[in-house]
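Supplementary material to the annual report.
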Amino acid sequence: MKDEKGTKVSRRNFLKLSGATAAGAAGLLTGGLSGLTVCPREVFAKDELKVGILDPYSGPYADSGREQTNGALIAVDEFNKKGGVLGMLVTTVQEDDATNPGTSVQKGKKLIDEVGVKYIVGGVSSATGLAVSALCQEKKVIYMSVGCHSDDITVGDKAHRHTFRPTCSNTMLARATASYIADKFGKKWYFITSDYSWGHTGRDAFKKVLAGKGGKVAGEDLTPLGTTDYSSFLLKVRNARPDVLIVSLYGNDLVSCVKQFNQFGMRKEMQIGGPLNGLEMARVIGKDSNVGYWGMPWDITVDTKGSRDFTGKYKGKYGKVPSWRAYLGYVGMQQLLAGIERAKSPEVKKVIPALEGFAFDGLKANKSYWRDWDHQSIQDTYCGRAKSGAEVKHEDDLFEIVAMKKGDEVAHTRAENPVKLEAL
Amino acid sequence: MDLSLLLSQLFNGINLGLLYVLMATGLTIIMGTMGVVNFSHGILFTFGAYFAFSIAAKFGFWAALVLAPVLVGGIGMVIEMGLVQRVYGKDPLYSLLLTFGLAMSLEEVVRIVWGTTGLPFSPPDFLNSFVDLKIMFYPLYRLAVFGVILLLIAALWFFLERTTMGKIVRAGIQDSVMVGILGVNTKALFTLVFGLGAFLAGLAGVLSAPMSGIMPTMGDNVVMPSFIVIILGGVGSFYGSVIGGLLLGIIVAMCIQFVPAVAELSMYLVMAIVLLVRPRGLFGEEGLFE
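Predicted assembly:
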């Protein structure tokens, strides 16, 4: 084969050449395309601050995930109305972690590697929270573990420098709730526990308080996440005749268990309680079956100006009152954005020190603060009593706060928590 | 060991088992007649509960108990005529994928129509109390569920064993091609069988709603045990699913009492043992689904 200039192009060279051209063109094309996905970030870097929201919208904790995201979006609105953060418009990219640790890591990687976010806000299940926390530490991305309560998030070797927890730990909830229950209803307890990190640390925290009061464990069972029939477990409980049944269950699991506790008439025989309960579950349990004493990070009845304002805004946007999940989403997002403002830079390395040790208005009676050595938000922690029957005056009137503890009274002390966060 | 505890666990196991029986009977006649592995059975269960919720709010519990399963049966027939019919005679994988996809889509429909949040549903007031059985107290509602399901099983037995229609259904399970050759309109028969299965799933959904609450994922937890029941009892066998369902319910309840760590695993263990000893299940017959 000859070209116009008469130089000989061998078949071999022709193939090489066309191959190289094709590869080059493909390279240009993909380069151009990936350039396109990078471009908005580079070009608009000055006007846009992207935050990843990673909450469960499916699986047993879907309702809670939706609430948290709704709350977080209120904080985003607030900042954008004021002109954004450091002059940048805050935008969010939402992903569904499906209440599944594997999916949460996959979606977290997508947010970090493909979307290019530097901050992730969200999480309901501690199993997903711990997985995302490890990922974010590795990728040097800030993780606001909004609603994960397992002690492990901020205690021991699973706690990380890039992770902050806006909510209370299980130990805080248990110390606020368990001593109240023990003093009032007796010290022989039976435990039904969801079989994963959150359930285990919740049960252990309650057990520790019980042991401190000289109480006795009447029995215990572990149930897999997603159990719907608790009746056989409840029959065992009834037979053991405890004073109190402590259920470290959450979401649909908690709903089924409390409903069946009522069906078997056990509320006349013993008290029930646990580390967590809230509006979105109490509504499904139904006002006639709503019973027990529960740990709560917040409630609409917290009577501060901040809480009233937040409740008003949430009602205005979504047409219903916020649960404490919505509150956590709000505070988590708000404090992340405020931290970026204080750092005067979106750079992760500067935002982390701006958060550490900072005291803020967490909408509660006492100020909250980020403890610098474990990244736990130290805050007022509540014990709520579930209201039922005639005392429920309207559909959201389902809890009454009966005890409040200051954060420093209930959180792990330095001696109790062997954590050593990584260097930046 | 406390006798009353043992007895109440036994009751509880039967209670759970009877729900499995309802689910498994529908599954097994569908599988036996059309060779379809119906993964949408769980979502039909869920639909039963949600329909009951909406109907009970307007017309009360009794209306819900009767109307919701009928509606679900209707939906089942529509699904059969519109979709499932197209995969008859093909590899079972087609029907499996079709019904699995259908189950996921319909679960989203439930979320869109009724919301992602669970819904409260209580037994009717007059059933919301306890019966003193001398040795133990037992919730009246659960006893009523016993009654309803036992009546239904009796009715099903009568239908399958004593009516012409039932004989045709049983013949269809044996050999649907032959039934067609003998002049029976198998197309209508298949629609009817699918509708009957859906009706039973819907009824199971209605009955269990007051016990465990209503949520979009509620069907997932009954589908797997129901499949185990028909493997235990033998595909296509009505007696097999009755015995298999009760057996499984009681075994799970007893395991929770004595060895809670293996309660979840026990179903699969029982299945494995039965398959080792009787590969076709307890009442399975040669030539069905093989």
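The mean pLDDT of chain B is 90.
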